[in-house]
């Protein structure tokens, strides 16, 4: 909390802005999107999410730098550092996220994620993974990109864990395009690994409060070319996507390591948007 003592005015303005962001997003959904009927469609909810993800990113004093064309649809497979990834990637275009069921239970934020049309998965129930896989098809058929964090957890950004292939089963079966996406950050007045990345044993509220003391940060996002698996090999597709995501970091001069094993996935609020094998 030393950042709050060093920058009390910046923190106070950021905190006020964050609460206004939450209130504005909720009221906009209820009184604009819901009452006008736009919230009944996936695209309507995705458009609402894009609007407020962009506002939330500005509240945190962040901006996005993009390389590569935005995919028009299909699956997006990204590495995962933080809850900030949601705001960054959600602000670029209407998109549907796949998130862990833990997120749905978060106060306020979980409700907002539901409003955005997020698909939730209970990773401890393999049968539910199959159920979510069935929910993917209508999203793809509607032409909305569907974004997965296939590492199953977040990292500090120096490496990318193996991608878990469970939700890639319908991707290879239906020959949907799977676009690799890399996201990383620059932070002038602090450490990306310690103050933007949300991992290890970090706790959400103190992490967010500290982030509100930062002057600014830049999110770097690179989109690659769609990747397809040979035949119906979802595990090979997962490996190819992981390698391509690592390679995309080079667009911003980053050298990212390909992780060779999965870390144990912790229980609780740090389990974010990834999906598990």
Give an overview in words.
With about 280 residues, the protein is α/β, with parallel strands linked by helices. The chain has one domain: 3-Layer(aba) Sandwich (Glycerol-3-phosphate (1)-acyltransferase), CATH 3.40.1130. It has eleven helices and nine strands. The strands form two sheets. Strands 1-8-7-2-5-3-4 form a seven-stranded mixed beta sheet, sandwiched between helices. Helix 2 (about 10-35) packs antiparallel against helix 3 (about 40-60) and helix 3 packs across helix 4. The longest helix is centred in the first third of the chain and has 27 residues, at about 10-35. The N and C termini lie far apart (about 35 Å).
CATH fold field value:
Glycerol-3-phosphate (1)-acyltransferase
Largest sheet: 7 strands, mixed
CATH architecture designation = 3-Layer(aba) Sandwich
Question: Which overall shape is indicated by the principal axes computed on the Cα atoms?
Answer: globular
State the low-pLDDT regions, or none: 262-277
Mean pLDDT: 90
Percent strand = 5-15%
Give the helices and strands as they follow along the chain.
HHHEEHEHHEHEEHEHHEHE
Total number of β-strand segments? 9
Please bin the fraction of helical residues: 40-55%
Task: Name its key features.
alpha/beta; Glycerol-3-phosphate (1)-acyltransferase; globular; single chain; disordered C terminus; 277 residues; seven-stranded mixed sheet
């Amino acid at each position: 909390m030393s950042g709050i003592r060093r920058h009390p005015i910046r923190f106070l303005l950021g905190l006020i802005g964050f609460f206004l962001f939450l209130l504005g997003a909720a009221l906009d959904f209820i009184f604009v999107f819901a009452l006008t009927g736009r919230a009944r469609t996936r695209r309507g909810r995705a458009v609402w999410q894009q609007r407020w993800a962009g506002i939330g990113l500005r509240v945190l004093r962040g901006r996005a730098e993009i390389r590569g064309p935005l995919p028009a649809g299909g699956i997006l497979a990204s590495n995962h550092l933080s809850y900030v990834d949601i705001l960054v990637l959600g602000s670029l275009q209407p998109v549907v996220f796949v998130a862990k069921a833990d997120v749905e239970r978060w106060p306020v934020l979980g409700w907002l994620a539901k409003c955005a049309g997020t698909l939730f998965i209970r990773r401890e129930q393999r049968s539910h993974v199959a159920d979510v896989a069935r929910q993917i098809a209508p999203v793809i058929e509607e032409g909305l990109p569907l974004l997965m964090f296939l590492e199953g957890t977040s990292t500090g950004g120096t490496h990318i864990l193996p991608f878990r292939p469970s939700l890639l089963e319908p991707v290879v079966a239906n020959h949907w395009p799977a676009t690799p996406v890399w996201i990383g950050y620059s932070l002038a007045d602090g450490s990306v690994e310690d103050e933007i990345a949300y991992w290890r044993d970090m706790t959400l509220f103190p992490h967010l409060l500290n982030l509100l003391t930062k002057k600014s940060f830049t999110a770097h996002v690179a989109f690659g070319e769609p990747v397809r698996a040979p035949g119906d090999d979802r595990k090979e597709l997962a490996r190819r996507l992981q390698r391509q995501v690592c390679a995309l970091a080079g667009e911003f001069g980053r050298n990212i390591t390909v992780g060779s094993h999965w870390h144990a996935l912790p229980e609780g609020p740090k389990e974010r948007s990834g999906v598990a094998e």
